Amino acid sequence: MSVLDRFRLDGKRAFVTGGSRGLGREMVLALADAGADVVLVGRDVASLERTPDDVRAFGREAVPVVGDVAVPGECEAICQRVLDEHGPVDVLVNNVGGRREATPVEECSLEDWQRLMDLNLTSVFVCTRTIGGAMKASGRGGRVVNVASVNAFVAGQIGGGRHYETAKTALLGFTRAVAVDWAPHGVTVNAICPGGFMTEANQRWARERPEVVETFRANVPAGDYGEPEDLGPLAVYLASDAARYVTGAAFVIDGGYTCW
């Protein structure tokens, strides 16, 4: 067997939250290129209609699901529906999240704090409990990949929206703890910690707060933001047999941003 064969995902099914745009879309395409069928969930109907066609171009099955996993009850219903109609799932990518708002802590309402924590943390818990729990119960093993952030290690320079740092730091703790619990069952749980990538969200920041974007770029040793497609190969690795012995780990991919 070639070492590259261990990266193949033929016969596997992946479930990716926020899979129709940005980093999620690139991970979906990379997983499909490696051989996986994909179920992707998102709120944006237009992008959910486009991405499946790109997946099918690889000869893989694509199932789009419209919904908002940031709403806990809706997230539970989506996960159960996916298991009932499209299971079993071999790879779970918890990608949904984002800063979205840069409200200072002293001005953030309790309701907004909870809503944003549901987006960045509770959604991961619900998907992991339901989809990942089914992997554990099946005895077949599986892969859980949580998308955290370099802001789990360093505070962002935006000056607000600290729900994001809080949730992403907690997500690393959740990743390590569940990895320990599920390792004996063949389910690995790992995290990807992206730095700056020029997704739609950061393109919006570039228009609205160009000074923030330029300050960040100036602090990246590699000299620029990453491109979304840079993340796909790492997702494939963590989803594949090549990462069989990797669990509880956090992989930083940031052009060296957190090195200084």
List the helices and strands and how they pair.
Elements: E1 13-17, H1 22-33, E2 37-42, H2 45-56, E3 62-66, H3 72-86, E4 91-94, H4 110-138, E5 142-147, H5 163-182, E6 187-194, H6 200-208, H7 210-218, H8 232-239, E7 250-253
Parallel strand pairs: 1-2, 1-4, 2-3, 4-5, 5-6, 6-7
Average pLDDT value? 94
Count of discrete structural domains: 1
> Strand order of the main beta sheet, please?
3-2-1-4-5-6-7
Radius of gyration: 17 Å
| C-alpha geometry | globular
CATH architecture: 3-Layer(aba) Sandwich
Spell out the CATH superfamily: NAD(P)-binding Rossmann-like Domain
Number of strands: 7
Q: Could you say what the CATH topology is called?
A: Rossmann fold
Provide the β-strand percentage band.
5-15%
The SS-based structural class is alpha/beta
Low-confidence regions: none
Write down the CATH class.
Alpha Beta
Main attributes?
Rossmann fold
Question: What does this entry show, briefly?
Answer:
The protein has 260 residues and is an alpha/beta fold. It has helices at residues 22-33, 45-56, 72-86, 110-138, 163-182, 200-208, 210-218, 232-239, and strands at residues 13-17, 37-42, 62-66, 91-94, 142-147, 187-194, 250-253.
What this model shows, in words?
With 260 residues, this protein is an alpha/beta fold. The protein has one domain: NAD(P)-binding Rossmann-like Domain (Rossmann fold, 3-Layer(aba) Sandwich), CATH 3.40.50. Helix content is 44%, strand content 15%. Strands 3-2-1-4-5-6-7 form a seven-stranded parallel sheet, with helices on both faces. Strand 4 (91-94), helix 4 (110-138) and strand 5 form a beta-alpha-beta unit. The model has no long low-confidence stretch (mean pLDDT 94).
